[in-house]
Design a protein that fits this description.
Number of strands: 5
Structural class: alpha+beta
Radius of gyration: 39 Å
Distance between the termini: 67 Å
Largest sheet: 5 strands, mixed
Shape: elongated
Helix content: 55-70%
Length: 425
């Protein structure tokens, strides 16, 4: 029974919520009717300009001066009667001054607002008047029988009953149509106000993208500083303690010659483990942020990676001007991880690494350069990011600075990985 009665109850609720006597109908009607007084200054100014015998400049000037006040009035109308908060367009120039006012009048936001006041507002006022007339004629036509009974009987026409029926039906239709007409006008007016009275959506999106780019750059810089701090703490703290431990164990092994063989074996094992831990910590510190990268640049840092590779690496670096620290760190990580992947999976006998600064896609006139890194190996090929060979991490690291990575790795080789990073970060 609850399911059967749900649809009728829902229909009844919808009808009562959109009936001519509902709050929805009166709210939209009040909103559209309020457009009439809000547009009166513009309508009067336009009328005075058209009907003036000579070239009248005062009415347009008054409309121009009343523009900010009219904008506030319209925003208040939307906020109070419709519950719609139209954002305020930011005004450049700071405090009020003649120069700031002239700059504002030349701005795109000002002309959009005047476009609303000169075009949309008069049309909304006319539409609001039509809504009011629809309510008035609908109410008068619905009560036509009352008006007829007031008149003397000898003034009634022979077909007065049929005519009154038609007028009554027309009045009821007008009363049913008026709320929907008001809702349609309110919707169109709201769309126009959001586009013209508020900020430019395209400009706001551009500004938001710029803010997000600045925020991301700040996050990347903070992460790079944190990596440097961790590298410094490990180098100056844990690494020095391990070195001291290895030295003490070495001294103990050299001086304590009368210990049993089992004790010497334990000392030897501990000494060897300490040296291995120092080597692993060196690799970890070097991977976080190598000191040579900060002191001597990308050329020296990549030379160190190439020297430690288990296969010959031909390195070419053509960078006249150093890119940003964040880009250098990403480039170092890319080359280090790529050579590690080549050593693990490619079974390559030789590898080439080439790094250079190249103009962006727009050419030298575009004003931005890219750091292009190309790593080529003669291995077996078939590198696939979906197989978890470390290429997914490369994509994420390169994408963190809006870089691009292109992988060409047919079966049988060779594999060519090309990375382009913006030097401006």
């Amino acid at each position: 029974m609850a399911i059967r009665g749900g649809a009728p109850r829902h229909a009844y609720t919808w009808i009562t919520a959109h009936a001519p006597w509902s709050a929805w109908a009166w709210r939209n009607t009040t909103f559209t009717a309020a457009a009439i007084p809000a547009a009166l200054p513009v309508l009067l100014g336009l009328t005075a300009t058209v009907t003036a015998p000579g070239p009248g400049r005062l009415p347009p000037l008054l409309v121009l001066l009343l523009g900010p006040l009219l904008t506030r009035l319209q925003r208040s109308r939307f906020r109070t009667l419709l519950g719609l908060d139209v954002p305020r367009a930011e005004r450049e120039g700071g405090r009020f001054s003649p120069l700031a006012a002239a700059r504002w009048l030349r701005s795109e936001a000002a002309w959009r607002q005047y476009g609303y006041h000169l075009l949309v507002s008069p049309l909304a006022a006319v539409a609001g008047a039509l809504v009011v007339l629809a309510w008035a004629f609908g109410a008068a036509a619905t009560c036509v029988y009352g008006w007829i009974w007031i008149l003397p009987t000898d003034t009634r026409t022979p077909a007065w009953s049929t005519d009154c029926d038609a007028v009554t039906v027309g009045g009821v239709l007008l009363l049913l149509l008026a709320p929907w007409l008001a809702a349609l006008i309110a919707r169109l007016d709201s769309v126009a106000a959001a586009s013209l009275l508020g900020p430019n959506r395209a400009r706001e999106l551009e500004r938001r993208v710029e803010d997000l780019a600045e925020s991301r750059a700040g996050v990347l810089d903070a992460a790079d500083l944190e990596r440097r701090r961790i590298e410094r703490d490990l180098h100056d703290g844990a690494q020095q303690r391990l070195v001291a431990l290895a030295m003490n164990l070495g001294i103990a092994r050299a001086t304590l010659t009368d210990l049993p063989a089992e004790a010497k074996a334990v000392i030897d094992e501990a000494h060897r483990g300490a040296k291995e831990a120092i080597e692993e910590l060196n690799n970890l510190v070097r991977g976080l942020h190598p000191a040579v990268l900060e002191d001597r640049g990308l050329d020296a840092a990549l030379s160190g990676i190439a020297a430690r590779a288990p296969f010959p690496v031909e390195l070419t670096v053509d960078i006249a001007q150093r890119p940003g620290a964040t880009v250098e760190a990403v480039a170092y990580f890319v080359v280090s991880e790529t050579l590690a992947n080549v050593a693990k999976h490619a079974r390559a006998a030789h590898c080439r690494v080439h790094a250079e600064r190249v103009p962006a896609a727009g050419g030298p006139a575009h004003g931005e350069e890219l750091l292009r890194i190309t790593v080529t190996d003669d291995g077996v090929g078939g590198a696939d990011p979906a197989r978890g060979t470390g290429l997914v991490g490369l994509r994420k690291r390169v994408g963190s600075v809006d870089g691009t990575i292109m992988i060409e790795s047919p079966l049988g080789g060779p594999t060519v990985i090309t990375v382009e990073l913006p030097c401006g970060l």
